[in-house]
Design brief:
This protein is mainly alpha-helical and 216 residues long. The chain has one domain. It contains seven helices and four strands; from the N terminus they run αααβββααβαα. Strands 1-4 form a two-stranded antiparallel ribbon. β2 and β3 form a beta hairpin. α1 packs antiparallel against α2 and α5 packs parallel to α7. The chain starts with a helix and ends with a helix. The model has no long low-confidence stretch (mean pLDDT 89).
Length: 216
């Protein structure tokens, strides 16, 4: 039974890498780029649900509670950020990430949750210390955003006033990731399925390749 679970998990991890590889090829082709952009929110929703499903199976009720808290927390902060420019700076969301509520795509809270989860699960493989693991996971999240920003702007995920990404944005990313990671640690959540690590790695690779090959 345990071997069967491992095989299934490996297949799903492989699916994540395959879908992001297809995404890279599709985004770099002028013929399929528009289709890829249209499919972006559905792809993120499908893969996000896959990651959460596998993690929930290996977890407990505290993990579900953490998901709900962090989704609502990050979504609310995004709404405040868009409406006031006080959190991340002056920005607004484009059409690529799909359906919005209060000018913020509903998918954005899910991606926040998954990026923080994958970063934290990775860090906790070599550090169980609450402060250190929260700190390192937050640094990974900031690096993730730094790599993602040029691609996000190019593909109309969101746009910054005068195309300037303020330092405030990265400080806010660090703060939110640190709060979310600390809550995870203080609740002593057991949600250590490694699939979340691969999800973040696959996105890292996607943004790095698009940055290198797709941005002129």
């Amino acid at each position: 039974m345990e071997i069967k679970k491992i095989i299934i998990a490996q297949k799903e991890i492989l699916l994540i890498y395959i879908m992001f590889t297809v995404g890279i090829i599709g985004h770099l082709s002028s013929t399929t780029k528009e289709l890829m952009l249209m499919l972006t929110p559905f792809t993120l929703l499908f893969l996000g649900a896959l990651v959460l499903y596998q993690t929930i199976k290996a977890s407990e009720s505290k993990f579900i509670l953490w998901i709900i808290i962090i989704y609502l927390f990050t979504f609310l902060v995004e709404v405040i950020g868009v409406k006031t420019a006080l959190v991340f700076g002056n920005y607004n969301y484009g059409k690529t990430l799909g359906f919005k509520m209060f000018d913020v795509p509903l998918i954005i809270g899910l991606n926040w949750t998954l990026v923080i989860l994958g970063s934290l699960v990775f860090v906790k493989t070599f550090s169980k210390n609450i402060f250190i693991s929260s700190l390192l996971a937050s640094l990974i999240a900031v690096i993730f955003d730094f790599i993602m920003e040029p691609v996000a702007i190019m593909y109309d995920y969101w746009n910054w006033t005068e195309n300037i990404i303020p330092l405030q944005n990265y400080l806010a990313w660090f703060a939110l990731a640190f709060i979310a990671s600390t809550i995870f640690n203080l609740l002593k959540v057991r949600g250590n399925s490694k699939i979340s690590i691969h999800y973040v790695i696959a996105q890292f690779v996607f943004f790095i390749v698009i940055n290198f090959l797709g941005i002129n």
